[in-house]
């Protein structure tokens, strides 16, 4: 039976992680990057969030793919190499295999350990489709390393079109300038292959506040637990002494920036200490933990064109809450 191939490029620098966290906590305002949500408990809490009735993005995007996958397949070239960014459990890509029929599948996540079990199972289900797990921090630099290009060439796919797949509206975690940089890198990756390649990407849209805000502040408090769990992760990584019960979850839509913001708000004045540093927080002072930008179709199409993509088109749900874009190169 064929086996998936694995390439680990990202190596965590613990000293750099501690320096990044300390710098963020000393900032005015303090901030912690959302990548620190995802320790094992944080990942399980996020999975629970996606099942909440208030959290529309996951099920709405799934509905868009279910309704429009055949139309998308008319634009994605046959025999493309599917490069799945932030693949996780690979379920979204796998559901599209029957209709998109990629020649090979490259699953990208920060660590191949997240991908190993899933890819072994998927490879058994699709023995004819070469699969590779790539451990890469693509938010820092999206480029296929030489070992992956050699692997593709070994399967006769050096000149196969590339389909970069980025579902889940994860692009919303990037500011517009950061998103533009990532999209330009995605375009460069697409151009490495044969003609017809492009980007298939999920994008959450601007919508009424009564829909947006509960998705990030649910009635059961699962998102609040997800946000506060970040403090426990920081305690382990930096040696801080955060007490999560003394921090309130805050989520609101910033209309001027077109983004949901998540914060943790100090419940009473307190001093947080760690080896070599400390930070005093006044009552009500906040730590900014996440942005989730929301787009209009027109604004995101303009961003794709600025990144160099040609002829973007999109599909949406009946309510117009979420879009999936195809942008060719």
Summed up:
Helix content is 38%, strand content 25%. The protein has 329 residues and is an alpha/beta fold. The chain has an eight-stranded mixed β-sheet, sandwiched between helices. Strands 2-12-9-8 form a four-stranded mixed β-sheet. It has a two-stranded antiparallel ribbon with strand order 10-11.
Explain the overall architecture.
Helix 4 (91-100) links the parallel strand 3 and strand 4 (104-109). The chain is of the alpha/beta class and 329 residues long. It is built from 10 helices and 14 strands. Helices cover 38% and strands 25% of the residues. The strands form 3 sheets. An 8-stranded mixed β-sheet has the order 1-5-4-3-6-7-14-13, with helices on both faces. The protein has a 4-stranded mixed β-sheet with strand order 2-12-9-8. It has a two-stranded antiparallel ribbon with strand order 10-11.
Chart the SSEs and their pairings.
Elements: E1 5-8, H1 14-26, E2 30-31, H2 40-49, H3 56-73, E3 81-85, H4 91-100, E4 104-109, H5 112-125, E5 131-135, H6 146-154, E6 162-166, H7 176-191, E7 198-204, H8 209-215, H9 222-238, E8 247-254, E9 259-266, E10 270-274, E11 277-281, E12 286-293, H10 297-306, E13 310-316, E14 322-328
Parallel strand pairs: 1-5, 2-12, 3-4, 3-6, 4-5, 6-7
Antiparallel strand pairs: 7-14, 8-9, 9-12, 10-11, 13-14
């Amino acid at each position: 039976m064929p086996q998936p191939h694995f390439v680990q490029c990202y190596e965590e620098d613990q000293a750099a992680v501690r320096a990044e966290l300390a710098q963020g906590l000393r900032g005015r305002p303090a901030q912690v990057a959302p990548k620190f949500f995802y320790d094992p408990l944080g990942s399980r809490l996020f999975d629970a969030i996606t099942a909440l009735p208030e959290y529309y993005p996951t099920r709405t995007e799934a509905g868009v793919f279910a309704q429009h996958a055949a139309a998308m397949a008319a634009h994605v070239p046959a025999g493309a190499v599917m490069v799945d960014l932030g693949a996780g459990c690979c379920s979204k890509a796998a559901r599209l295999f029957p209709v998109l029929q990629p020649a090979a599948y490259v699953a990208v996540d920060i660590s191949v350990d997240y991908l190993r079990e899933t890819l072994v199972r998927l490879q058994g289900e699709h023995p004819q489709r070469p699969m590779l797990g790539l451990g890469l921090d693509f938010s820092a630099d999206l480029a296929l390393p030489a070992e992956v290009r050699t692997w593709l060439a070994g399967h006769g796919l050096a000149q196969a079109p590339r389909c970069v797949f980025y579902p889940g509206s994860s692009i919303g975690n990037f500011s517009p300038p950061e998103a533009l940089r990532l999209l330009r890198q995605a375009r460069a990756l697409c151009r490495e292959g044969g003609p017809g390649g492009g980007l298939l990407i999920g994008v959450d849209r601007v919508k009424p506040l009564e829909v947006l805000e509960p998705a990030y502040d649910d009635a059961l408090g699962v998102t609040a637990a997800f946000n506060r769990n970040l403090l426990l992760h920081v305690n382990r990584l930096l040696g801080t002494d955060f007490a999560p019960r003394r921090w309130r979850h805050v989520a609101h839509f910033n209309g001027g920036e077109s983004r949901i913001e998540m914060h943790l708000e100090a419940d009473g004045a307190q001093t947080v200490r760690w080896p070599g540093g400390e930070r005093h927080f006044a009552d009500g002072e906040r730590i900014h933990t996440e942005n989730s930008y929301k787009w209009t179709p027109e604004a995101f199409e303009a961003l794709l064109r600025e990144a160099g993509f040609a002829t973007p088109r999109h599909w949406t749900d009946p309510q117009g809450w979420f879009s999936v874009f195809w942008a060719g190169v």
